Amino acid sequence: MQQDVQGKVDSRAMREVNRSIVLDIIRRGGKVSRTDLARRSTLTKPTVSAIVDDLIARGIVQEVGFGKTVATGGRRARLLEFNDASAAYLGLRFGVHSTALAIADARGEVRAIRETPTIAGDAHATVRSALGLLDGTLEQAGLPRSRLESVGVTVPGMIDTRSGTVAFAPNLGWTDVPIRSLLQQALDLPVVVHNVTNAGAIAEGRVGAAKGARSYVWVYVGHGLGAGIVIDGQLFSGTKGFSGEIGHCPIAEDGPLCSCGLRGCLETLASGSAIERLATEAARSGQATKLSEHRSPLEAAAVFQAANEGDAVAQGILRGVGQQLGVGLSYLINVLDPELVVLGGRVMEAADFILEGARSSVARHTLRSSKIDVVASTLGDRAGLIGSVISAMDQSVRSYRVVATAERMA
């Protein structure tokens, strides 16, 4: 009896493997015939035919005409193509100032993005505001709501990955917000929740600067600061999902007060908020700087602009922030020994100056044997949002496997 059960389990697992192989060939190969699928997958024609029939029935694959006439005069083969519109995925990025929605198709291509202001301190109102844009974003993407399969969420805070709860997001003013439950109740779809650094790390490893790296650190440098850690190809989230909170590690005992309640956290010295504070102080001090032309308090964007226009004070602020950031990076490098460190987030709009300071600081504060590349993200400020879409797709794949297994066991 036990051998029969094991045999059934092994058979189901093999069918899933075969299905994944066939679907991957169709997704990557453009128009392809069943015969080509059998040849390229090394599976038998009956096996391929059964898989294809199931994929067509589910709307994942579609027939798109016939191939070229064969030399023997036989019937032309029907061609198959992956149906990009067979599924839709929702990515949500809750930011300090704005919340973004992205709709991607079955291939993972983002078709539409919309944004709405984040309502500080009110998670429920922010969720309602975001979901109010959903139908319009789907319409812009050319995908019906019925095609939505799953949701990926990104939040700048500490996420309990087991429950999908935002335990603490100080820059949003959120505490113990059951974000997964809120969205599941509203949409009746699977929901996966990551903090912004983990989502950014996922995206950078799949389609960004860390593609091909097995162990790397992705550091978000925006209004706040945090790290996403990938070890041997796997995202490291810690026991509850709270890993990577480097931004809330104090490095200056008498430093500025942080939103978390501590003083001198790295985030207060090496983030967008740190840039704004330092620039406002410089403008008020009467220094000869373009920063004094702007209203106080200054926004980071004004500092970036002044630096790019050659303002020495603005450039010095950015290099100094980069140097403080390098101190934090050196802790990560010395502890984790990654292949690569990738810096993302809005502050990296000033990448040249931030990288200059960070690299020189890392060189001073890491072990001499540690020669780690520190590079800017190739995904810009969209990394977290792209990561939320990828997470939604990964969640959908897992859900399909559960459903498919249940259907076969019924």
Number of domains: 3
Q: Segments where pLDDT lies below 50 for 5+ residues?
A: 399-410
Tell me the Rg in angstroms: 25 Å
CATH class of the largest domain: Alpha Beta
SSE order: HEHHEEEEEHHEEEEHEHEEEHHHHEHEH
What fraction of residues sit in β-strands?
A: 15-25%
User: What class would the helix/strand composition place it in?
Assistant: alpha/beta
Number of helices: 13
CATH superfamily of the largest domain: ATPase, nucleotide binding domain
Overall CATH architecture of the largest domain:
2-Layer Sandwich
> What is the share of helical residues?
40-55%
Estimate the global geometry from the Cα principal axes: elongated
Distance N to C terminus: 18 Å
Instruction: Compute the average pLDDT.
Output: 88
Strands, total number: 16
User: Reading side by side through the largest sheet, how are the strands ordered?
Assistant: 6-5-4-7-11
Q: Any idea of the CATH topology of the largest domain?
A: Nucleotidyltransferase, domain 5
